[in-house]
């Protein structure tokens, strides 16, 4: 992997691997921005005649709530999205994530990290060569077994990080253009035992044979980490990533409660029909070329 990035677009590589997907986290109602992203992902897949899959990203056990799953599915149905098969749930796929971790472990690419957030913040503010600001500075990277034992004895459970620091990964986003990033040693399993988003999403998009990832531009920065994981796990990445602009409130800030009616339910209560909202959300063709 070099600064030239990874060559992602291989339309002939696996012609069956074309699915689109939407992968909401069940942490609340979907807002209009989420629905717009979902519609763009759905429309892109359907225009290509490809399957469209839903994945419930309930890997974060602290924030995910069962009651939101059905609410979100209903919101997606109401806005006119259909999907193929049953939605997949990350909470039912731990075995796959464990296998991926075992593979990384076998390549000596994992290490335990005992740092607290505060320690990382403090250490990350000191200059450390190539790594971007806020990057994990590698404090636990080269601990000896005795040092690790000592920290384990303190009782703080470790997170697992990958040895990725300094890798430069680039790709061509279908919407945002060229993206390049220098990685740090990012977390693949959190210290509360939950698998990290980047690990789960990589394993799932490969296993579900997703060919195009459409998601919000707030996740643009995560893709180089996922590409690194694809590479190290020896699995193909999706052919195309399309990070679509986030929907903003009138003040130019990310959509939030204070912007008024931002959920489907609130808009419908205010007198709009689901069909009107759908048309409004799909109005701009500039969003996904
Ligand atoms: N679960 C993520 C979210 O709701 C989306 C992840 C993805 O599309 O890769 O923000």
Describe it for me?
By secondary structure, the protein is of the alpha/beta class. The chain has one domain (20-244, 254-282): HUPs (Rossmann fold, 3-Layer(aba) Sandwich). It has helices spanning 32-47, 66-78, 94-106, 117-124, 145-153, 197-207, 223-233, 264-269, 274-281, and strands at residues 20-22, 52-56, 88-89, 110-113, 159-162, 168-173, 177-182, 187-189, 212-216, 240-244. A three-stranded parallel beta sheet has the order 1-2-3. A three-stranded antiparallel beta sheet has the order 4-5-8. It has a two-stranded antiparallel sheet with strand order 6-7. Strand 9 (212-216), helix 7 (223-233) and strand 10 form a beta-alpha-beta unit. Helix 3 (94-106) crosses helix 6 and helix 6 (197-207) crosses helix 7 (223-233). The protein is globular, with a radius of gyration of 20 Å. Mean pLDDT is 90; it is low at 1-11. The protein binds glutamic acid. Glutamic acid (GLU) binds at residues 23-25, 57, 201, 215, 219. Glutamic acid binds at residues 23-25, 57, 201, 215, 219.
N-to-C order of helices and strands: EHEHEHEHHEEEEHEHEHH
CA distance, first residue to last residue = 28 Å
Low-confidence stretches: 1-11
CATH superfamily: HUPs
Hetero groups in this structure are: glutamic acid
CATH architect. name: 3-Layer(aba) Sandwich
Radius of gyration: 20 Å
């Amino acid at each position: 992997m070099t600064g030239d990035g990874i060559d992602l677009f291989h339309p002939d590589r696996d012609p069956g691997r074309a699915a689109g997907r939407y992968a909401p986290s069940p942490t609340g109602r979907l807002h209009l921005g989420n629905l717009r992203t979902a519609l763009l992902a759905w429309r892109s897949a359907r225009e290509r005649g490809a399957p469209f899959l839903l994945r419930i990203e309930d890997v974060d056990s602290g924030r995910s709530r069962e009651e939101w799953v059905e609410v979100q599915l209903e919101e997606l149905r109401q806005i006119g999205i259909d999907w193929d098969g049953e939605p997949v749930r990350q909470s039912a796929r731990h075995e796959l994530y464990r296998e991926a971790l075992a593979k990384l472990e076998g390549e000596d690419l994992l290490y335990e990290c005992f740092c607290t957030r505060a320690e990382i913040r403090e250490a990350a503010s000191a200059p450390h060569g190539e790594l971007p600001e806020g990057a994990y500075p590698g404090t636990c990277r080269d601990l000896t077994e005795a040092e690790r034992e000592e920290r384990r004895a303190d009782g703080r459970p470790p997170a697992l990080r990958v040895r990725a620091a300094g890798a430069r990964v680039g790709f061509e986003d279908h919407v945002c253009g060229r993206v390049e990033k220098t990685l740090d040693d990012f977390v693949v399993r959190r210290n509360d035992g939950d698998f990290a988003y980047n690990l789960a999403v990589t394993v799932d998009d490969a296993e579900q044979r997703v060919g195009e990832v459409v998601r919000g531009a707030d996740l643009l920065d995560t893709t180089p980490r996922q590409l690194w994981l694809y590479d190290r796990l020896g699995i193909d990445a999706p052919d195309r990533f399309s990070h679509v602009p986030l929907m903003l409130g009138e003040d130019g800030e990310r959509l939030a409660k204070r912007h008024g009616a931002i959920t489907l339910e609130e808009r419908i209560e205010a007198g709009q029909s689901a069909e009107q909202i759908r048309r409004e959300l799909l109005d701009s063709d500039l969003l996904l070329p």
